[in-house]
Amino acid sequence: MDPVRKAIEDALRGIRELGTPEELEADAQVGRQIPAAKANAHIHLPPNFSAFNSVRQAVELSAGQGLRVLGGSNYYDFSVYAELAAECRSHQIFPLFGLEVIALLDDMAAADILINDPGNPGKMYLCGKGIVRFNPMTRTARELMTRMRRSDSLRMRWMIRRMEEIFASCGAETGLTAESISSRIAQRSHAVKSTVCLQERHVAQAFQEALFELFPPEEREKRLTTIYGTRPKAHADDRVGTQNEIRSQLMKKGKRAFVPESFVDFSDACRLILELGGIPCYPTLADGTTPICAYEDPPEKLVDMLLANRVYCAEFIPIRNKPEVLERYVRSARTAGLVITAGTEHNTLDLIPMEPSCIGGTPVPDKIKEIFWEGACVVAAHQFLRLHGRCGYVDDSGDLNPAFPDRQQRIDYFRSLGAAVIARYDEQYSR
């Protein structure tokens, strides 16, 4: 058997064998549950573009900062989740497995409506929470994933070629190709090259590094001015600032290296998440952009749209949001019966704290933090039940678990069960 597949099967078995659903339900009923704690349900791990050098670093930072639950949300390859599970087990942190995917809603694009991407009408980021069927995948999931990866790979190849042509025409030939950049990422993150899914940030980083290797600081501003056609704002030694400018000046829509993206539609994005056994989840931008995207404004309208599309979970990356705006959106969604999770993404090189906080590091209000913990528990319970072949928070069709006609009763059950699962996990791996 493929060693990665075996490691993932062992990791999932370790959660499944915490007990039977009946045993964990009994634990929940007598109060054998972990009390509310710190959780982060959304980070990106290398070889995705990430603030972390390794999975171990991400987990060690989480443990050192007191997290009890940590969730990965990688794009298009989940081999890294074997290592995530192993490191989480060693540090007594419960792992959540998830994904992020991008869809295009044609009607929203035609109407020029921004969803949760402030630069592209009709483009929607969508997450999946509590996936369990990712190695091996179902045939449908494998076909969808192959189509997405192929499309992304082709786009990145064309973009890299255009970038290299621009740099070379300005006397900064780098020799970079999709293969060489993938090899760099694989080497840096100790990953197998085939698991690397190139992202724009990877490409910008590679060209920034190559340029800095080619030219000393005193020559970089002049060279970048030629490449951009305008004077750079980032300092000559600012790696991250230069990477961001390379993206904005060359790779975004309307710029010289831009290559149009090709996305699956919303139904296919949801189908992939459900085929992987997960819960479709909408990552909410809110005041992470100004003005707030039309799809999300006001929050009551957003909730109605999500419910109409059978998306029963919403997620926040609070570092984007003011506390008062975050509270308004979370309370609106939770009152309507949506499960709410939170994360940090860590999809830039900025190594911010592992516990989600609001803009400028302002603490998340305590009542909202409790709702985020509740959401982490719901996902943990869903993941546990799906590993036992049971219906989770949603079923394979995306419908809510029919055993609970009352939405509050449903959330209460999954919160209690999830807290019991995490408590049993703590007991099992603290030995």
Structural features, described:
The protein is an alpha/beta fold and 431 residues long. The chain is 48% helix and 11% strand. It is built from 15 helices and eight strands. It has helices at residues 3-16, 21-29, 55-64, 81-90, 106-110, 139-169, 178-189, 200-214, 217-228, 239-251, 266-275, 299-308, 323-335, 366-387, 407-429, and strands spanning 38-43, 67-74, 94-104, 123-129, 264-265, 279-284, 313-316, 339-342. Strands 1, 2, 3, 4, 5, 6, 7 and 8 form an eight-stranded mixed beta sheet that branches. The longest helix is centred in the middle third of the chain and has 31 residues, at 139-169. The mean pLDDT is 96.
Query: Main β-sheet: number of strands, strand sense, barrel status?
Result: 8 strands, mixed
Distance between the termini: 29 Å
Global outline:
globular
Helix content: 40-55%
What's the overall average pLDDT, rounded?
A: 96
What's the helix-strand series?
Answer: HHEHEHEHEHHHHHEHEHEHEHH
Task: Evaluate the radius of gyration.
Answer: 22 Å
- Counted by DSSP, the helix tally is 15
Low-confidence stretches: none
Number of strands: 8
Percent strand:
5-15%
User: SS-based structural class?
Assistant: alpha/beta
